[in-house]
Specification:
It contains twelve helices and eleven strands. With about 325 residues, the protein is α/β, with parallel strands linked by helices.
Length: about 325
């Protein structure tokens, strides 16, 4: 059966059309556009008119593609910034009127669960992967999923959604181009503090954070745009190739080196790096800081990269 899923994120809107059968996915078409839905967000006014219009125009294009492809069903989800925005209902109504698409704003826990389903759908590790911690860095939030996988099932031990998105971090802390040492220090202190809160939440939920590290034998898995971009940069890809990115091993040393390089150069110079998706050049420093902070906080010396995530999970869940 041909089905479609759309993920409306705080930074990126993505479309997947695939054949879905017996719990497996065969991608037929993938489209993505950076609309920066969370750009200029405020607690008082919510999503800005400009970001709203940018995003709805992309959704109109995606709806036309879905109609042309004779898709049996389409699942549309919205995440972090739409969970918080005071004008979410108005945007959902306008999208329905202009595109016919019905948006479901999903919880952070649901986002994490579905992302994990998607991640595992392309994982090539032979046999059961055992204990793992997965990070999904988004524009408005970052999700963590602790799980144990066997040959027959995947048991999620805990899901945590953190208000630690790359759009917010970039707009809040990185005012200069390139960012100053004091700006970077303030951002890294914020990230470190949030990870401290995460560990406390894990303990409160009966999950020992110390059991998720390289020394404990756990696997660290990374998904979403920041992580796949880091893999593309490490591989020096002129053109993005999910086959090369999926299951790629990123070491903490490599991420440290990439962070050191990116934070020293201006946005215009980052734009010239082919492996960095256009529209992500001002966010990749914050995203890399989150990825590196997570690896250090949990003691991981490497992570496995997954190009799949929420889009695939929406079709499988």
């Amino acid at each position: 059966m041909k089905r479609a899923s759309i993920d409306i994120g705080t930074n990126t809107v993505r479309l997947l059309i695939a054949e879905v059968a017996d719990g497996s996915i065969k991608p037929l078409l993938i489209k993505r556009a950076i609309t920066r839905l969370g750009g200029g967000y405020s607690e008082k006014h919510g999503i800005s008119p400009e970001a709203r219009e940018r995003t709805i125009k992309v959704l109109e294009e995606f709806a036309s593609v879905i109609n042309a492809e004779s898709v049996a069903s389409a699942t549309v989800s919205a995440t972090s910034v739409m969970r918080r925005a005071v004008n979410s209902d108005a945007i959902i109504s306008e999208v329905k009127s202009r595109t016919g698409l019905e948006i479901e704003v999903i919880t952070g826990e649901t986002e994490a669960r579905l992302s994990m389903l998607g991640v595992l759908s392309v994982f090539s590790e032979p046999g059961p992967i055992g204990k793992s911690l997965t990070i999904d860095i988004g524009g408005g939030s970052t999700e963590f999923i602790a799980s144990t996988s066997t040959s027959t099932s995947n048991e999620i031990k805990g899901l945590w959604s953190l208000e630690l998105g790359v759009v917010h971090l970039s707009e809040e802390f990185l005012k200069s181009d390139p960012p100053t040492k004091s700006e970077l220090s303030a951002m890294e202190a914020e990230i470190e503090g949030v990870f401290g809160v995460l560990k406390a939440s894990m303990k409160a939920d009966g999950v020992d954070p110390e059991s998720y590290s390289t020394d404990s034998g756990a696997l660290f898995i990374g998904t979403a745009g920041t992580i796949t971009t880091l893999a593309a940069v490490e591989l020096d890809l002129e053109e993005y190739d999910p086959e090369k990115v999926n299951n790629y091993q990123l070491s903490v040393e490599s991420v440290t080196e990439i962070f050191a390089r990116l934070k020293r150069i201006k946005i215009a110079e980052r734009k010239r790096i082919a492996a960095i998706e256009k529209g992500r050049e001002d966010l990749i420093v914050a995203g890399t800081a989150v990825a590196l902070g997570a690896m250090r906080a949990f003691g991981f010396d490497s992570m496995v990269v997954s190009d799949a995530g929420l889009l695939e999970g929406l079709l499988l869940g």
